[in-house]
């Protein structure tokens, strides 16, 4: 309670930005010429994809307090998105040092990413926060321009673009570009300590993990019928969680965090997925998602990860990940993304009397902010930093579970990596007038998965 | 007297536990025009399985705030002053997920569609009331739903729920004012808690830091206060209508009737009663707390949602229904008045 002087409520925390300085080495101003070139030490940013998360990422970026940083260019396919975003940033950073985006550096259109990146110098940072279908296109250009990158998760929705991203990333590594992927749970202090403890054997060998993101209708996963006056392409982008080519749908966009944090604790990626799911309550929604997904992942050593995702209103809700080992169990996260409330119990059930360790509460370092501090720190101090490979693996593993549910087949990782179903052929050529790679049927609905009937691709 | 009320409300509740897929599309609740005629009742929500138990709160006068001698007292709890309150009904418990998600997750609309039952005129009006954008996360934070209190909503969301419920039921429901809340919480007492000053009894009445096991609990399990209200202390802090202004009491005339500080800023606004994560002293009847922007800390979207406080895991609300429903003008100038206007961003 910042307004009063009496005993602080638990609901009030330190401001995240204030807490940051205590936890990361942000005081160094030594700058490597290779890392970035601006003689005034200013890191310039361009924002490509100005939705809510993109604006949030820009806010986190501009809140990093280890040297001059400013936003100079923005791009989106919706003018209102860009204007709302700029307006909101202006409200947060009335100090114009941080926000210098003249009108001629605001770009509307599918080629806006190039123009926005052209406003930057090598060593600056581009924020890629469009739906993930465009990620490989934008990443390729960022590498060409010698830019450091922050990209949101997921980074791919299908196998061909995963292969493209991994190939592109070789060039980024050669150029020593610093590239962050928005799997922010990896930057959470509590989870990092838990990871250390698990590697030290505190719960023994992990043989079973379970993760849940069971909630009501989420994001734009349910897309209502398209109104008049907007093209299929633009409507789909507006409801990108509803369409597999854009986002990988509810599985890729929502479940990836719990899948990734579980695999991180296990230090491995699963090699196989079996899954089920179905559509019971889509009503007149025209999206391609199921209401519910249950995925069983198997690791090389036979260990299992069970993932439950649901977007049905009125049901039990849970957003948490747990690891069970031969000597005990760990709570990886139990309260949405953050605070993690990481804990270790000596038995298989989280009973108070079995509590062996817990991360001290309250957790003060918001991982959304931490991931930016780590990236900018790496840029200013020329520390090797590239999260793309694990971002790709998290994305394809998540897609493997999604495809297992959508086809009703067992999916293996090596088979998954080789698939040739490109969800968005020709995406690099899209314009505001283009037809969408996904065409509606005559009744305005879209192709949906038919497990067991359509087995080799997720929709036909 | 209270015993017979309990039986009446049990009978009401029982009538909504029938095996019909849909409960009777009947929002009829006992009408009363005088304080003497006010009885407890259960407000059904048409075409759903839910009902909200309401208990009558008699009109009267009380001393708002705490005496300087009260242990743990904060400056904003004084000076004590006389306040007059008109009669109203108040939710016996905090609004639960079962009651809240009907609006938040459009359960009523889904049930009408699935079971093919037509919308009543009230339904049609209620369908036009704004509902929240879907959240990105489980807003119960894995602590349990159903009879657990709904949490993490902004005051705007709680107000909008009341608006929807009013249209849906044909009765006027709103959040309590800060003064109504404290009056109802005290239930005639002048002590630190509604059961006296003995903090060792708090466990019988409230979920808080010492006994909550780090989460909220199903509503109505602890002892009620003298007016039959459960969980006024603890479980979750509860929204009121007012802007939080630390020196409100100093600037108030004694004897004021139904005071309200109409909000003109988003923060801070008043929550009352303390929650499962608060210490005993923060659960006192007189404690005032203002909302804070930190309550949105982990909302990664900008602009942050007008509907959710992602970090207010111990903030919920309960509803009231004044005996005398206000005129449209009174609603516009007092009870429903709030600024700045809250609108979701529109992407053309």
UniProtKB/TrEMBL annotation, chain A:
Gene3D superfamilies: Dihydrodipicolinate Reductase, domain 2, NAD(P)-binding Rossmann-like Domain. It comes from Fuerstiella marisgermanici. Residues 193-330 form the GFO/IDH/MocA-like oxidoreductase domain. Signal peptide: none annotated. This is GFO/IDH/MocA-like oxidoreductase domain-containing protein. SUPFAM superfamilies: Glyceraldehyde-3-phosphate dehydrogenase-like, C-terminal domain, NAD(P)-binding Rossmann-fold domains.
TrEMBL record, chain B:
Residues 53-297 form the Sulfatase-modifying factor enzyme-like domain. Residues 1-24 form the signal peptide. Residues 328-348 are annotated as: Disordered. It comes from the Bacteria. The keyword Membrane does not apply. GO terms for molecular function: formylglycine-generating oxidase activity; protein serine/threonine kinase activity. Keywords: Kinase, Signal, Transferase. InterPro entries: CTDL_fold, Sulfatase_Mod_Factor_Kinase, SUMF_dom, SUMF_sf. Its EC number is 2.7.11.1. The keyword Transport does not apply. PANTHER family: FORMYLGLYCINE-GENERATING ENZYME, SULFATASE MODIFYING FACTOR 1, 2. This is Serine/threonine-protein kinase pkn1. The lineage of its organism: Bacteria, Pseudomonadati, Planctomycetota, Planctomycetia, Planctomycetales.
